[in-house]
# Entry
Amino acid sequence: NAGVTQTPKFRVLKTGQSMTLLCAQDMNHEYMYWYRQDPGMGLRLIHYSVGEGTTAKGEVPDGYNVSRLKKQNFLLGLESAAPSQTSVYFCASGPDRAPSTDTQYFGPGTRLTVL
Amino acid sequence: GQQVMQIPQYQHVQEGEDFTTYCNSSTTLSNIQWYKQRPGGHPVFLIQLVKSGEVKKQKRLTFQFGEAKKNSSLHITATQTTDVGTYFCAKDYGGSQGNLIFGKGTKLSVKP
# Structure
C-alpha cells in the first residue's frame, strides 16, 4: 500500500494563477481532509469529505475549492492564488469517524509558494 | 472555545534529559490524539487516549489523559536525537465528521 500520496510535492505560482493539488489514498477510507500548515499555526482544516461526492468546509475554506468524484481521490483547487496561500498543504484520510475508532493518515505534503 | 492549547511552544533539551508537553482544553474532551512531525515530514499518529485518567506507554513515551478529561500530557524519558520534531495534540471537533482540531504543537530540539 502506498498509503496517502500527494502531487505535486513542490509548486511555485504567481499571484492570480490557478492550480489543483491531488490527493490519493489506497486504504479505502471514507473520510478525507485537506489541511494547511503555517509556522506557529499548527494544522488548520480547509475542507473535508465524508464520502464520495460529498464535501464540506473546514476552519479556513476561503479561496479554496474541493472535489471528491472518486472515493480514493480528493482534489484541492486554488482558482486565483494569493501570497497568503503560501503554505504547506497536507492531505489526510481516515476510515470512519476517525477520533472514535481510528486515526488520520497524512500524505507527505505539498509545499506551495505564491509570488 | 474549540481550541486546544499546547505548552510549551518550544523546548530545547540536552540529550538524555526528560521532556514533557502539555495539552489543555477548556471543555471536556471525548478523546485526545497525539501526533509527531519530524522536520520536513508529515504528522504521524502516535496514540489515542479515551478514558479518564488513562496512561499509555510506548517505550520511552508516556501519555496521560487527565481525570477530568480536559488535559493531556506527553512525557519522554531520556530524550534521544531521534525524538526531535514537533508534537501535536488533537481533539475531536465533534459531530460525525471525524474532524480534528490540532494544537499548535511543541517543537522539541535535542542537543547531542
Notes: The CA atoms of residues 69 and 96 of chain B lie 20 Å apart. The longest strand of chain B covers residues 85-92.
